[in-house]
Design a protein that fits this description.
Blueprint lengths: L13 H13 L6 H14 L3 E5 L2 H11 L7 E4 L6 H8 L3 E4 L11 H7 L4 E7 L8 H10 L4 E4 L7 E2 L2 E2 L6 E5 L12 E5 L2 H11 L42 H12 L1 H19 L5 E2 L7 E2 L5 E5 L5 H13 L15 H7 L7 H7 L2 E4 L7 H20 L2
Parallel strand pairs: 2-3, 2-4, 4-5, 5-8
Antiparallel strand pairs: 1-9, 6-7, 6-11, 8-9, 10-12, 12-13
This protein binds pyridoxal-5'-phosphate (PLP).
């Protein structure tokens, strides 16, 4: 027997510990040098000029919508097949999510359907790299460009991925990463907005910090002579130009982020090894559809999600997940459709069948344990257990 195999597990090393201690001993726990370095590392990796660290991926998306002035009366086109946060933020600013069905192979927004859904109230496209797959993000950018509306790239699941030579994070007016412990890198909690648009970046910096004015380049920040933490302690700290939030990323979290970013290439290589191993072990099984990665994509792999072939149903899928749990194998139904969550159904009167491809896909997915530290033995055990469960379900049909 193998020990419990969790669905995901963060990869935290000695450097993460060392840098967190350094922050604790420095006395500077917010808005310090680690935040700046973390922002530079992520901006560089995403191929963008500016990066703004925030307290979560959800907050990053929320600030981008606010900074773009999207609010009541506006529509934002988005996908029903994603983690719920990508649509929640549209509700949070008082705008209306306009869901569009997905493409059955990439599981991302179907570009043809986006074009048909754009109307006079459409103020943005919020596209997600679902399960980390960037396919069609370039098409989304082209459509947004033609209609002169911003593309917001929810790249929370795609840090380090490239598609047709472009880096995830750089496709839209702004991209947003998330650093929850199951993502490619983690800061415990955290997120980052990336953009080439300096005014948008400044607006987000102000919004994350209670609407305070942005220090001009070269001007000392909160730790300078007039800052709240400086010797004279006042300055612009209590000046507020707009209704802001507190979405700052603490220096402790930023230090973890710096350590993780410094070894991002190794973390990605380890994820690719696990994905390759799953692929080769599961290939050729007619009951399963494996993740599709097009030839122009270098994936950093957020999760490893298989789905049962067409013809299998939700009950069988749910029983397989439960049986995996009974064998101490982590598994999950990534993702239930957003439009069928109770408050979305109530608000917009969606009924099952509204987005048939997203619904059909989401009823058959199984996320398998996935982390940098998985051994070949563990991967083998997961595959063997999954195959056994599928066989049992198949016999009952
Ligand atoms: C993780 C994730 C988010 C939210 O990130 P948090 O840091 O958990 O707020 C948003 N969108 C997608 C697609 C995600 O996977």
């Amino acid at each position: 027997m193998v020990e419990e195999i969790p669905l995901s597990r963060p990869d935290i090393g000695r450097d993460e510990e060392r840098l967190v201690l350094e922050v604790l001993r420095s006395g500077r726990l917010s808005q310090g040098p680690f935040l700046e370095e973390f922002e530079e590392l992520v901006a560089d990796r995403a191929g963008c000029r500016h990066a703004v660290g925030v307290s979560s991926g959800t907050d990053g998306l929320l600030l981008v919508l606010r900074a773009l002035g999207i609010g009541p009366g506006d529509e934002v086109i988005t996908t029903p097949f994603s983690f719920v946060a990508s649509a929640n933020v549209i509700l949070m600013v008082g705008a209306t999510p306009r869901f569009v069905d997905i493409c059955p192979s990439s599981l991302n927004l179907d570009p043809k359907l986006i074009e048909a859904a754009i109307g006079p109230r459409t103020k943005a496209i919020l596209a997600v790299e679902a399960l980390g797959n960037p396919t069609h993000m370039d098409a989304c950018a082209a459509i947004a460009g033609r209609h002169e509306i911003p593309l917001i790239e929810d790249c929370c699941e795609a840090l380090g991925t490239t598609h047709k030579g472009r880096r995830c994070g750089s496709f839209g007016r702004a991209g947003v990463f998330g650093f929850y412990p199951n993502k490619q890198i983690t800061t415990g909690e955290g997120g980052m907005i990336v953009t080439d648009d300096e005014r948008l970046a400044d607006a987000c910096r102000s919004l994350r910090n209670q609407g305070r004015p942005i220090p001009r380049r070269g001007e000392p920040g909160p730790h300078g002579p007039n800052g709240p933490h400086g010797p004279r302690g006042l300055g612009t700290w209590l000046a507020h130009e707009r209704l802001g939030y507190n979405c700052r990323l603490s220096e402790l979290n930023a230090a973890v982020g710096v350590a993780q970013m410094r070894r991002l290439d190794d973390l990605i290589a380890a994820r690719q090894r696990v994905a390759r191993s799953y692929m080769s072990r599961l290939m050729g099984r007619e009951e399963l559809i494996l993740p599709t990665v097009d030839s122009e994509t270098a994936m950093s792999w957020f999760v490893f999600v298989v789905r049962l072939a067409t013809g299998w149903g939700r009950e069988e899928r749910d029983r397989i997940i439960q049986s995996l749990h009974r064998h101490d194998v982590g598994a999950a139904n990534y993702f239930p459709c957003i439009h069928l969550q109770p408050y979305f159904r109530e608000l917009f009167e969606y009924a099952p069948g509204a987005f048939p491809i997203a619904e059909s896909v989401s009823s058959r997915t199984i996320a398998l344990p996935f982390s940098t530290q998985m051994t070949e033995r563990e991967i083998g055990f997961v595959v063997q257990t999954l195959e056994l469960m599928i066989e049992r379900e198949g016999m009952g049909r």
